[in-house]
Amino acid sequence: MSAADFYTRWADLYDPIARRIPGIAGLRKRTAEALKLELGDVVVEMGCGTGANLAYLREEVGPEGTVIGVDFSAGVLERAREHVEREGWGNVHLVCGDATQPPLQDADAVVATFVVGMFSDPERAVEGWCEFVGSGGGIALLNATQSRRAYGPLVNVPFRAFVYASTPGRHELDDPTALLDRRVETAHATVERRCERTVHTDSALGLVRLTAGRVL
Ligand SMILES: C[S@@+](CC[C@H](N)C(=O)[O-])C[C@H]1O[C@@H](n2cnc3c(N)ncnc32)[C@H](O)[C@@H]1O
């Protein structure tokens, strides 16, 4: 099953998890704030899933700004569309497409949460996003990886089980968590290399990291 079909199949289960898992709302808000958007800006969310970040992004750009969510899975986009219609957000748009080759012209900022770990070449994808927003544009990544804190071995056991259960094509992978860690590490390092005024935080017992900055 492709990753897009996997997320379509699990969209109804994923949506409440993405919105209600303890602490997630604060992380999403902090990620949107880290972009340091201005009212009226255009922000693109790559791999927007069921749209759990859209409200926070919309808050940052205001009703005169624009939020665009891109995802390649029809099922999650359908859930996102239901939320947008229910809220009556006329300035939030959803696009079906490949986040590694965004089908868009221009934006002030790009955000991707829990997405880059799915890319075979995360460095190239993040490089592409930096080119897409251009110098001065904002980039923010939020991702889960194994914790490097002293108590990491304890919290990493359930984390690895969660990653295994939630990885499309897991049966073909030797170690889905190690692969996720490598991809996330690469993506965040690319933001650090390509950006200035970067901020980094790690939270949720060291399992979740945020890196954001402005493209040089
Ligand atoms: C773990 S979910 C995260 C969804 C959302 N960002 C969130 O924080 O809840 C990963 C999402 O990325 C999407 N995705 C993965 N690779 C993609 C790609 N190359 N192009 C577009 N969407 C992609 C999947 O369809 C899925 O909706």
UniProtKB/TrEMBL annotation:
It is an enzyme of class 2 (transferase). CDD domains: AdoMet_MTases. SUPFAM superfamilies: S-adenosyl-L-methionine-dependent methyltransferases (SSF53335). Residues 43-137 form the Methyltransferase domain. Its EC number is 2.1.1.137. GO terms for molecular function: arsenite methyltransferase activity. GO terms for biological process: methylation. It comes from the Archaea. InterPro entries: Methyltransf_25 (IPR041698), SAM-dependent_MTases_sf (IPR029063). It holds the Pfam family Methyltransf_25. Keywords: Methyltransferase, Transferase. This is Putative arsenite methyltransferase.
